[in-house]
Queue: 2 jobs
Job 1
Amino acid sequence: MNTAPRVPWWTVFAMTGAGVFMLALFLGPRNDLAVLPRPVADRDVLRVAYVQQLTPDPHVWTFPLPVNNQFILSLWEPLIECDPENGQPQAAAAVSWRWSEDRLSLELRLRADGRWCNGEPVTAHDFVRGWRRLIRQNLDCAAVLFPVKNAEAIHRGELADTSALGVEAVDDFTLRIQLNAVRSTFVAELADPLLVPLHATTAAVLENKPYRTAPGTLITNGAFRLVQAKAEGYRLALSPHYRDRNTILLSGVEFIRADGAAMARLLVAVGRADLANPPAIGAPAGLPTARCVTEETEMAMSVVSLDLNVARGPLRDVRVRRALALAMNRAGSIAEADADRLVPAYSWVPDMPGRPGLPLMHEDEAEARRLLAEAGYPGGKGFPVLILPVNQRRPNFGYLQVWTERWYRVLGVRTYLAFDPPEKHKLRYTRGEFDVMQGGLMATVPDAGDLLGLFAHPERFDAPHWANPEITRLMAEANRRSGLERLALLERIERSVMEDVPTIPMIFERRRTLLGVEVAGWYADPLGRQAFKRLAITPVEHGEFHAGGPP
């Protein structure tokens, strides 16, 4: 995924940063910073400090981090929302839906009262327009549409006509979607922030960016509309035409660009922001302020792994792959600074609502040495050096060092961490000239099958050059089932994959959100898609906003 370049933000934001540091230096000790009173104009405005680049283009982002999701979902509304408690789809821009008898065609009925922020009705044609734009983007995230008929062929250039995409407007308020195969999670997948509609004017506005000086040119259908776009952040106001505007307690949302996570944390500490996600390292108790701040955590639907090239050298032997997995010390490898954020992964799917994680892997140094010796490499003798290409854009180099050093200390297996320029890194990958590759996956729906579905598509899980037709069959069967039957099939898939060890899951992530006590209505969401329209800014003491100490 890539993102559009932004105007440098630091020139404008420098004054804000300087002001915070002046507070730190001159207004009191580091543990007693003065807390800024909330401006009257921001009484009902949620203020969010962010570090990553943000763009209002729903089809341009670097990674689906919570702040990206929250920003897009404040401006845009997809067809469906997911209940964070159970992952079940709920009506959003669509009010109802029904499957064909063969479950290969889905018809959704749009709300008659759905409106763009300029008052025009949201129609099925707007969703067709948005999805056709997405599938033309040269982005990996366009794979969210691959279950739709002809989507993958269009994205790969095998079909030039985007009108062949299996989505059509039957009439202004009926959208029909044709699928390649039965997919029981597809309705929930429609909640993805990528799958929003586009107004007839929006594609040109997103390309040319006139919204930077004229925010009203960006027409969106979410609860909020853009009213300011500057280098230091964005300001949103409640859309006057949103269908549920009378139930929303916020008058707006401000996204404030911070120079790093430490600055985002300080902005919350001194009352300039109400929310930071992700916050900097450190517990709320360590904030240099008297402001009352809480921290909320949630398990993310993602996994970081070491993928093994099962078509290469000793890694063809499952005993070798199991030895490498058994030799790990996941908990011991997690740095103290990351202990509140990272969780050892002993399965491919983390804990999630309605489906606890399965303890499928364990660690056993003695058994790891025995298996490697049984495979013909006692103490690592005669074992070739493993090649692990390193993507210099990823921040996990320190963990790769720790994990591969573990293989050497326990098994005598050496690893070469290959720092290559991007072109060579890609070439090494496509040619299969590696033994281990850092991998991982982030789910797009709160369903275990979304993470496990990777193994049913060897053309996508191609780093290990591993395929198992039985897994593909079981996943197809799971996609025809629901409830306990589906969960049982998904467990069979996960157990089978972990037993064959084409990949070694290493860490899960627990997201942390720093919140000022004034923020009400926050809820956990395994995909980090909290809808700000559900939140409120509330008084904390006698009808007044707290601005100087705990209530």
Job 2
Amino acid sequence: MLWQRLIRPAAPREVPYEMRRREELLEQAQRIAHVGYWERDLRTERITFSDEACRIFGLAPREGTIAIEEVTERLHPEDRAIWRSAVAHTLRGGSRCDLDYRIVRPDGEVRFVHSQGDLTRDASGRPLSLFGAVQDVTDLKRAEHLTQLVFERSPDAICIIGRDYRYQRVNPGFERISGRSAKDVIGMHVADVLGTTVFEQTVKPKQDRCFAGEEVRYADWFTYPDARRYISISHSPLRSKSDRVEAILAIFHDLTDYALASEALRSAQAELAHANRVATTGQLTASIAHEVNQPIAAVIMNAQAALRWLGADPPNLQEVRQSLDLIVDNGARAGEVVSGIRGLLKKAPPRKNSIDINSAVLDVIVLTRSEVLKHGLFLQTDLAKSLPLVEGDRIQLQQVILNLIMNAVDAMSSLANDAKELRISTSSDASDRVLVSVQDTGPGVDPNTADRLFEAFYTTKPDGMGMGLVICRSIIEAHGGRLWVTANEPRGAVFQFSLPAKQHDVSGDGQRHALAA
């Protein structure tokens, strides 16, 4: 009937798809960002929570409102007072309610939240409600806490320095290394802590580079109230929202113990290297004696000849002059041999000089030539022309060459004469590194034990100590190079080392020599 149709309840209007979709997206965004909204009715003291706000507080999402007591019960007991104070301040007409506090979920888990709320009033100015958002910031707070722990408990000294070169913040590690309390240091100028000279000459130029946006790292010795320390320092630029560097994060790592231990190790290595040089030179006694005796014998012979020419009637001064020139040459040759020996035997700290590696090789060959001849070896050298100079300690590098040559001599000493070939060569590669190679035709090395040759106390010689190659490798590595061994074809071994070239310098012309027994 008509009246029945008129009083029939109207069908509920369907919510448009677009509106449902927006609500779904809003709910999803809240869940992703861990942000929920809430509204507190100041007349009823009931609170409306969004689903995400309920989840943040550990409550089941629900329709309708929640009693204020159920919410305050979730507040951490230590934070309830600051929560009430912030709300009361807003209700009295203060600024927006904005605070961080902790909540305790029903399962006992503590979470950190950040909440903001605005006050709504009626036409007469009476407070009606508070509406705001709540965000779970637990992960952020924990990250901040861990960052704070790193800052406070780091064994390294950490500080923040402003553009005025004054300390803005320091950690306990900085207090220990500087010998000053944080209360005293904060606000002080860097020059007041390190001294004006150190600041102006060493620190300020590097901090200025950091203020220009560069990561700066360096290490040096610094004098502090308690001691002199070797410190590794990093300066990292700190920027605000703009690109301008507002401050420097400076981290100081105390490497004093490491530096002292490194110095002690270098000293011990130098002592061991010297002992090795003395021992190797002792093996060359006969060879050295021969190299010295030859020019001395020539000096005597030429002196006798000069006397005879002087005794002639009339004296042959031209022949006398030639004999005296030969005496000078042979005396110089003997002096060079003795000088080379003295250099190898001398105990002196390592030096950094520009070295012509070809010249260094030839000097060592002079000392070992008689030993090579005595064992019936055929020696050939192939020294590249115009090699770059290398930088380092000449005596130490000569020690390496001497060791490699003597090892090759030992390896071939028991072979038949026609099988004894020793080849010493130099070259440079595409990366501008200088390569020195000592090849022999001895029994070679076992590929399975080749790496062990460079281990301490490992030796294939009955009377060897197993330290020669260890020392050689340490010397080459200290010069920024590498020492290795490969098989020679068809037999024997090739010991090679490479060194970085000194820039913009080249050595003299290469030389090729052959010495037969």
